[in-house]
Amino acid sequence: VRLSLWCVTMSAKACAAEADHHSGFLKFFSALFYAGSSFLVTVVNKTVLTGFRFPSYMCLGIGQMITTLVVLYAAKTSNAVHFQDFDKSILFKIFPLPLLYVGNHVTGLASTKKLSLPMFTVLRKFTILMTMILEVYILRKTFPKRLVYSVLAIVLGAMVAACSDLAFDMEGYTFILLNDAFTAASSVYTKKKLDTEGLGKYGVLFYNALIIVVPTLLASAFTGDLHEAVAFKDWVKATFIFCFLVSCFMGFVLMYSIVLCSHYNSALTTTVVGAIKNIAVAYIGIFVGGDYLFSWTNFLGLSICMSGGLVYSYLTFNSTSARNTDGPQELKVHITEDSIRKYSTN
């Protein structure tokens, strides 16, 4: 009996170890996928909105929504993915994600157009602080002091860099801070909605885009934004069309990567991954893009911000790995006295 119990215990431990291995791989892969997608979509959007001077960030967002609908509908029709068909319950299940989604899209594209790449990524660091606050009040989470201090260091560095920005744009700064708030709220609520019956990650993506694409299109037409986009002179250029289509597709990829990362990780972990990506984008943007005005104070703020981001990322991933909060819990095998007797008689 003892030998049998030992075998069962070792088998349970092996299963738990294998589950941890697969879960760890999915966490890392989804985080890496999100970081790469976020980096690429920022560069492509910057090329379309600033490089080609495309006048409508709202229409670019509409293109990304339409791409999401087309891709997911084709995948659902071919049975490649599965999610609930539309009915009245969808609106209650998914609210308030559509509002947060459109706010995140519009303010994100607007701030990309108004700000240089380094300042865009620096001010995005406030998303981390906002995510922590929302997780405390909505998800009732607590954070160790070391983690809080690293977040404060990130915010301090962002403030130093922003105050010395020689290309100060109040409208751009307003958009990026609103984008931070929408991103934080969207990340926290996405994590909650992924467990909603009938939705899943594909349903969340599809119905978000479906619910908001028509109101966004009407708003664009009412404000004259759509007319400016249609009258844009570079529609005859193959290079612009290619970059626009790539931006639309990458918008879908980015949203999918966010949902995927949130599915396998926490909302805070997803935000941390974005911070890691921003470290690379900020320093690359100093040398690439041509719209960064260098100053030592600005560079110092960038360095403080990025150093805090590295410490924050290390503390978060290390504590997550140690506590295994996002992964499978310990596999317990319950063996009753009756099962022991049954086994001994055999």
UniProtKB/TrEMBL annotation:
Its main location: membrane. The chain crosses the membrane at residues 26-45, 57-75, 122-140, 147-167, 173-190, 202-223, 235-260, 267-288, 294-315. It is a multi-pass membrane protein. It is found in: Membrane. InterPro entries: Sugar_P_trans_dom, TPT_transporter. It comes from the Eukaryota. Residues 31-313 form the Sugar phosphate transporter domain. Keywords: Membrane, Transmembrane, Transmembrane helix. Coiled coil: none annotated. One of its GO terms (cellular component) is membrane. Pfam families: TPT. This is Solute carrier family 35 member D2. It comes from Mastacembelus armatus.
